[in-house]
């Protein structure tokens, strides 16, 4: 049976090895914790159809390996991504310190306009915390990122992270800031249902551009 949806968004899950990226993806898609999680080799893939602001959106999610030796392979998947979860482990200062490099990669290789949500994973291990909420919140603010702390184990904020990112992309499409027609936008129309809306939106965006000239 073919799925029907209004939009398709390409998503990435990026960050250092051991931060729980695959577990986050598994929790989001299967609604359960992945017990036997090994390090991802290269790239894993998952997809889910969600309801965002009254629209049906299919998320195509590429979970990338965090180990340096796979970096050249995973970088090729960045291209044309509309959104990303940038993940660190709240119990590991090392994974937090690496965030700037991951962020640079995402904005350089995917798109400067990629919508990114910073996820401080393993919130359930609060007693072993090495990175404070406030510190990470400040990093997110300085780099214009959204921010949530998540737990792939309990499921806390996992769905919200993906939906928040998708909602922001949808808002940018509706405001004309993102154009699904543009090559490499990481966004596709999902069916005939929205084609009639293309013209008015395009005209609005054009009018806005003329105003800002």
TrEMBL record:
Molecular function GO terms recorded: G protein activity; GTP binding; metal ion binding
Family: Belongs to the small GTPase superfamily. Rab family.
GO cellular component terms, semicolon-separated: cytosol; early endosome membrane; insulin-responsive compartment; perinuclear region of cytoplasm; plasma membrane; recycling endosome
Keywords: Endosome, GTP-binding, Hydrolase, Lipoprotein, Magnesium, Membrane, Metal-binding, Methylation, Nucleotide-binding, Prenylation, Protein transport, Transport
GO biological process, one term: endosomal vesicle fusion
Any Pfam family: Ras
Lineage: Eukaryota, Metazoa, Chordata, Craniata, Vertebrata
InterPro entries: P-loop_NTPase (IPR027417), Rab4 (IPR041819), Rab_GTPases_membrane_traffic (IPR050209), Small_GTP-bd (IPR005225), Small_GTPase (IPR001806)
Protein's UniProt name: Ras-related protein Rab-4
Signal peptide positions (record): none
